[in-house]
Amino acid sequence: MSLGLWHNFGESSPYTDAKEMVLGAFDLGITHFDIANNYGPPKGSADETFGKILETELSSYRDEIVVSSKAGYGMWAGPYGDFGSKKSIVSSCDQSLKRTKLEYFDIFYHHRPDTDTPIEESMDALAHLVRTGKALYVGLSNYSPEQTKVASDVLKSMGVKCLIHQPKYSMFDRTVEDGLLETLEEEGIGAIPFSPLAQGLLTDKYFSGVPTDSRVASESVYLTESALTAEKIQKAYKLNELAQSRNQRLSQMALAWVLRKQPVTSVILGARKLSQIKENLEALNNLTFTESELNEIDKILK
What's the pTM? Predict the structure, then answer.
């Protein structure tokens, strides 16, 4: 599994909280850390925080650690601070390398497609990063099946392979099953889904209200209280009963369910605490499902 460093952790000491999670995750066997240029707040702070941890605590393990970053969402004002022009992607990568104090990223993604920029230009930017040694591999995120096919073909024509796609995928969001996973298999591209727990909805934390330390309580823009519908809570409750029959927490079953699908190779854990990472990793203890269990999950999710 992989750890996504999306935001500063905690309010009083974000660096201390982030350090505990990164080092704790590494000790547990996680060696892939996922960031992006605009992660914060403020934008760029995830780069700086992770870079400091890597430099001061894990520098001797750099060759064992996979660091991925992205460009494509708004980072700075002006025509090149957003989306997918070659200048935007290359400049974003350069800035992130400077903030993290890294010489290269193991994987660099185009974070989202740009309808105003030809895919050929965005892919040329990614190929440029590989040729110049700023990225070892490249990937896509939030691309549709059709866009993924075009992007993959363009990269291959440039002598660069698209290694991986980072889509949103969970029991509550199965959009990728409408063609994307099939396209990735055909193209030989791996998938590493983000939000596999639907921002915490696929856990038991909201069964008795909104905890004070949850994403909803923190007024996260990624999960609002309006998302906590009675229907989703009821579905989560039924899924939790099935998880218990498998001797798992709901979060663990939800992760196992995503990991069962080809061509999924890993998932991005968006944890806020080290204890959540430890809990999530226990999903690896039971990754198999019976046909009856899968049918029951489909029935609940309808």
Answer: 0.92
